[in-house]
Amino acid sequence: MSKLFSRLGRRRALQGAGALFVVLGLLLWWLLPLGEEPPSGTITFSTGTPHGVYQKYGSLLRKAFKRDMPELDVRLQLSNGSQKNVARVATGTADFTIAAADAVETYREDGGPGAGQLRGVARLYDDYVHIVVPRASDVESVEDLKGKRVAIGLPDSGVRLIATQVLETAGIDPRKDITPLPDGIDTGPERLKRGEIDAFFWSGGLPTDGLTELADDFELRFVPLDAAFVARLQSRGGATRYYRPTVMPESAYPAVQHGTPVPTMAVSNLLVTRADVDARLTEWLTRTVIRSRDRIGADVHSAQLVDLRTAIYTDPVQLHEGARRYYRSVKP
């Protein structure tokens, strides 16, 4: 009898091991294309400024790419932001980047070099517009910025593009009616804290580390952009069609908002490449971007919003062939 139980125990152990191998095999198939060697070589990824979401997200993506493609060398380039990023990819200075949809459309409308070669990999997450002032400031609306010292973002940044559109919609000429300053999230918070500027614009994912850190020892608040203002902005046409009214949830910056949501506007961020970038490489990168969402989302909250169902919508550019292959392979 003991021998019978022994044989049954071994049989169950073998069956259990076999089931484990099947599960591991299915997991491997889900994560990687079976029997395919990972791409190798070198690519350049243009990110953003220090303390901004683009740079942090890009750094974490590079680690994820390294796990899936150990022989792929991913070189990160700091950048002023979306407008510079789009130009770099379009002209071949970088291979991949993150850029806001309005910046991509503006580059296309302006007929920038290589604009027709731009392709989408994934729609990622939304940038929220922040207009930051000291809590004691007398600025209650965008119109109140007239005559103030306002940081409107670095040259070639997505922030500069948005700040210009917002100010002009409010009837403010950014060159004459304010003192415009070229500060971004890297220097704007400290200058506001020292009283060297009266306000600064920022457009980024929620929350942005630079603002969370500023709120730790400085009393600030956000100037609202209500739906009526955003509608006026959209009526300007062109790239403004990518702006939409939204609300910054009270949980974004608890120390600043004190349980109160802030009306503002948002614009989608896209992962962008060029048509001539290798399709197999792009397919692998697309897979990693989608599969690494939760892992990266633990550090970059915005990454949690990457969704397979919406990632394919990369308007104003069409999907890259490699990205299209990936989305077709996982289509239910």
Describe, in short, the structure shown.
This protein is an alpha/beta fold. It is 39% helix and 20% strand.
Structural write-up:
With 332 residues, the chain is an alpha/beta fold. Helix content is 39%, strand content 20%. It contains 12 helices and 10 strands. Strands 1, 2, 3, 4, 5, 6, 7, 8, 9 and 10 form a 10-stranded mixed β-sheet that branches. Strand 5 (149-151), helix 5 and strand 6 form a beta-alpha-beta unit. Helix 2 crosses helix 10 (279-291) and helix 10 crosses helix 12 (321-329). It starts with a helix and ends with a helix.
List keywords for this structure.
10 strands, single chain, alpha/beta
Helix content: 25-40%
Radius of gyration: 23 Å
State the helix count: 12
Helix/strand-derived category reads: alpha/beta
Number of strands: 10
Low-confidence stretches: 21-30
Q: The biggest beta sheet, please?
A: 10 strands, mixed
- Overall shape: globular
Taken in chain order, the helices and strands follow as HEHEHEHEEHEHEHEHEHEHHH
- State mean pLDDT (0 to 100 scale): 91
Oligomer: single chain
Proportion of residues in extended strands: 15-25%
Question: Separation of termini?
Answer: 50 Å
Task: Describe how the helices and strands are arranged.
Elements: H1 2-31, E1 41-46, H2 53-68, E2 72-77, H3 82-90, E3 96-100, H4 101-109, E4 118-134, E5 149-151, H5 158-169, E6 179-181, H6 188-193, E7 199-204, H7 209-217, E8 220-222, H8 227-234, E9 244-248, H9 254-257, E10 262-274, H10 279-291, H11 293-297, H12 321-329
Parallel strand pairs: 1-2, 1-3, 5-6, 5-7
Antiparallel strand pairs: 3-10, 4-7, 4-8, 4-10, 9-10
Helix pairs in contact: 2-10, 10-12
